[in-house]
Amino acid sequence: MVKERIAFPSFSQEPIRLIDPEGCWVAPFSHGLSAQELRHFYRDMLAARLLDEKLVVLVRTGRTSFIAPHAGHEAAQVGIAHALRKGHDWLFPYYRDLGLVLAMGVPPVEIFGQTLGNAADPAKGRQMPSHPGSRPLNIFTVCSAIASHIPPATGAAISMKLRRTHQVAVCTFGDGATSEGDWHAGVNFAAVQRAPVVFVCENNRYAISVNISKQTASENIAVKAKAYGIPGYYVDGLDVLASYFVVQYVVERARAGEGPSLVELAVHRFGPHSSADDDTRYKSREELSAERQQDPILRYQRFLEREGLWDAQWANELRLEIAKELETALQEAQKAGEPDPLQMFDDVYAARPWHLEEQRRQVAEELEA
Amino acid sequence: MPIVTLVQAINMALDEELRRDERVMILGEDVGQRGGVFLATEGLQQKYGPDRVMDTPLSEAAILGAAVGLAAHGMRPVAEIQFADYVFPGIDQLFSQAAKLRYRSGGQFTAPMVVRMPSGGGVKGGHHHSQSPEAHFAHTPGLKVVVVSTPYDAKGLLKSAIRDDDPVVFMEPKRLYRAVKEEVPSDDYLIPIGKAALRREGRDITLVSYGGPMVETLKAAEEMAVAGVEAEVIDLRTVMPWDKETVLNSVAKTGRLLVVSEAPRTASVASEVAATVSEELFDQLLAPPLRVTGFDTPYPLAQDKLYMPTVTRILNAAKRLLDY
């Protein structure tokens, strides 16, 4: 097992890094991954980036109202996705996780359906874009309220422990979420119960416009774990294999009954907070340009080149293949059309009580008139 | 058949449901070893163990949020909030997560959980041990809200709430915990959520109430009977969804409606009942519907008795309706 082979230090001063910016493998162990597995990471990161670019186009051409770009988070998100047992473990994501849910296997047509808020959305167009969820994949539908999914992740993990399902709950969030009371409540309770849950912070150092220096006086996010009596891991989230190996290590640790962990994946946010945000008001173009120099996909490309697994022709073909897949999915989603307006009254309760029947009847009559 | 108090009936329901379904569990502050500050969970941890009757950190957000995750993952959690007044630190979990999970996921995920909480005044608790916040919950689509007033109902409704597929806020008027006693069968029975109880039949006036003030409402009806006025008394039991049919049938017969509640008046459950009756039975009413409620102040300590609906206040309002 990986766990026997690789143990990572908690509370390290420097971020845990396995691939350096030049693409060199710098870990004291061999990764043991096949060429196919290594290329799979690249494919998922590239797909995440292309999805992000496509969503930006959808917003700019007025075909959707909102997106929360995830460019810069790809290594972290793909690392997390590969560390879970898909369809077995549970994921509690937040709104900047479309690259993560894509890598988890959510069909692109569902992602576009959710983005368009139409009938291709398994959640029936109920929420803003960037709020995915999937029952078959155990992906707990995103809730806008920041950090409100932390205590539910803890609860699900307690259920996993009590019923010995050998599952793990993985819960992701941004740096701003760690200031919410519900974050504290959820992490604390999980630690007391030694519940099989892994808390992963995708720390891009900006909560909309508020810099991490105004968010917390802690030296980093990972050290917060100390106060809860659980290990915290400070990881270079621009390094897909570091993200993968550390998250996998703590996921399997949780599965083995050793309790929760906190992982901080240090990333950059290349875009604004959302399509409704103007990041030039608070982030200098020099800072952004320096961040873009550290593109996680480029770093991994250099690594693959050194492994003899990357060449321009292969990458171009892959890019075209993914772009075509996404375009096909988008077209399919666009064909789905508007959700039935009377679905507005469904899923409030398991069955419609009299007052919702009355209100539904009123709207039905208005629509017929 | 044992004669039990309301809090004992709650304990019976929890005990029976824990025994019946291994997915059922209890979580909250002091619910384990202590058996709850009102002893609603007395003896249950000893019987079912610390995993199924779980003492939690002092955090309503943790209790309610964990209940959401437990329920979504397949358990049937019964969360105890020590006093209704302390639900507010956990309200985002109740309003943003529990109430909307089914809706926001398009029915993919659900939160079948019960949130029990002692509510209401009359125990010299000041404003943070006396509130009746049911209107907040009733105003949040996705939640069902039950307020009990008798031991028999408490047991049957709590069992229904635990088996319900939606989140149910279950309010227990603390001043009735040991003040009312009646025979409660030890076998399994359910009382449906959303059905009111006709406590007394009459043709002259309809009194609608629920929870704590049911006591004063029934006393007022008895006094009216002595004076020759036959009041029909309805105990709503569920305030969301409330039993409109039973209320309209009664008011169609009597032509007069008085709603009694100890919650603040403005934007209250009492207002909702009065407004609906006005809309639907306007031309059959003999007088405008009236409300006897708590006042729009924080719950006061020194003026406790003045704040609560009294028999006299109910009788005076009834007289206004009858003399109209």
UniProtKB/TrEMBL annotation, chain A:
One of its GO terms (molecular function) is branched-chain 2-oxo acid dehydrogenase activity. InterPro entries: Alpha-ketoacid_DH_E1_comp, DH_E1, THDP-binding. Residues 43-341 form the Dehydrogenase E1 component domain. Transmembrane segments: none annotated. It catalyses: N(6)-[(R)-lipoyl]-L-lysyl-[protein] + 3-methyl-2-oxobutanoate + H(+) = N(6)-[(R)-S(8)-2-methylpropanoyldihydrolipoyl]-L-lysyl-[protein] + CO2. The branched-chain alpha-keto dehydrogenase complex catalyzes the overall conversion of alpha-keto acids to acyl-CoA and CO(2). It contains multiple copies of three enzymatic components: branched-chain alpha-keto acid decarboxylase (E1), lipoamide acyltransferase (E2) and lipoamide dehydrogenase (E3). This is 2-oxoisovalerate dehydrogenase subunit alpha. It comes from Meiothermus luteus.
From TrEMBL, chain B:
Residues 4-179 form the Transketolase-like pyrimidine-binding domain. PANTHER family: PYRUVATE DEHYDROGENASE E1 COMPONENT BETA SUBUNIT, PYRUVATE DEHYDROGENASE E1 COMPONENT SUBUNIT BETA. Its cofactor is thiamine diphosphate. It comes from the Bacteria. The keyword Oxidoreductase applies. InterPro entries: THDP-binding, Transketo_C/PFOR_II, Transketolase-like_Pyr-bd, Transketolase_C. Its EC number is 1.2.4.4. Heterotetramer of two alpha and two beta chains. Directly associated with ODBA in the E1 complex. This is 2-oxoisovalerate dehydrogenase subunit beta. Pfam families: Transket_pyr, Transketolase_C. Keywords: Oxidoreductase, Thiamine pyrophosphate. It comes from Meiothermus luteus. GO terms for molecular function: branched-chain 2-oxo acid dehydrogenase activity.
